Amino acid sequence: MEINHLFFAYDKNMVIKDLNLKIEKNKITTLLGANGCGKSTLLKLITRVEKPKMGFISLDGKNIKNIERKEFAKKVAIVRQKNQIAGDIKVEELVAYGRNPYVGFMQKPSIEDKNKINEAIEVCGLEEIRKERVNSLSGGQVQRAWIAMAIAQDSEILLLDEPTTYLDIKYQIEILKLIRNLNKNLGKTIIMVLHDINQSLEYSDTIVGMMKGKIEFQGKASQVLTGEKISKIYDTRLKIIDIENRKYVFAED
Ligand SMILES: Nc1ncnc2c1ncn2[C@@H]1O[C@H](COP(=O)(O)OP(=O)(O)OP(=O)(O)O)[C@@H](O)[C@H]1O
Known about the structure:
Helix content is 34%, strand content 28%. The chain is an alpha/beta fold and 253 residues long. Strands 6-7-8-3-9-10 form a 6-stranded mixed β-sheet, sandwiched between helices. A 4-stranded antiparallel β-sheet has the order 2-1-4-5, covered by helices on one side. Strands 11-12 form a two-stranded antiparallel sheet.
């Protein structure tokens, strides 16, 4: 995916300003940046919820605005920050929504659709609760159910906007490991927004630092993050320390 000279504004508030970015296939890319720098807006532009004022986003050389709706859904899936479902539905029913781009109007799901739904349920460890109501689950289980829906969509690219927010550390790690497995085992290209810098260092191939609607830096997680760079994008004094060959971010004293 390539993002070229992208501009976007809410009314007169210019939120994305000449943003350029290349996202590598089959890698995990994490967007970091301060509150309000435009991360969620960028995901909205990538998923066509919002339209660029200028510039364009291309996928395999094609401007995404020219890709037919169902075709686009087969290429890009998203798990949003706040997901909402209509009604009191079961986990397996929610996951089945992921097959909508593949099932024709008034058609029944095919064997392949059912297999994909079962696969997604299995990958996300939801077999035992597939008949439970989504409204009755814990935060971590709900998040896994939404990720399973996105997996059933069987897209090449999976976007996740703060997938671990509101979860305790056990579920955070569970979700991040699941995301890593989706990348390694199913070859998904992952683009996610995280607020925990230490977790982003551990679970990403590439880190993208955003600041005021632009890309400030991009590179390998292990190489690109320095105290100076990370302090700049969060406008606060941070340092990076190596402990047992792993990098950690701390506040400066
Ligand atoms: N629907 C909207 N209408 C008007 N302004 C908006 C809307 N959504 C976001 N904004 C503004 O656009 C800017 C970027 O918001 P965005 O949600 O993309 O940032 P973010 O980096 O995802 O922030 P956070 O880390 O807090 O989730 C902010 O100034 C925000 O107030």
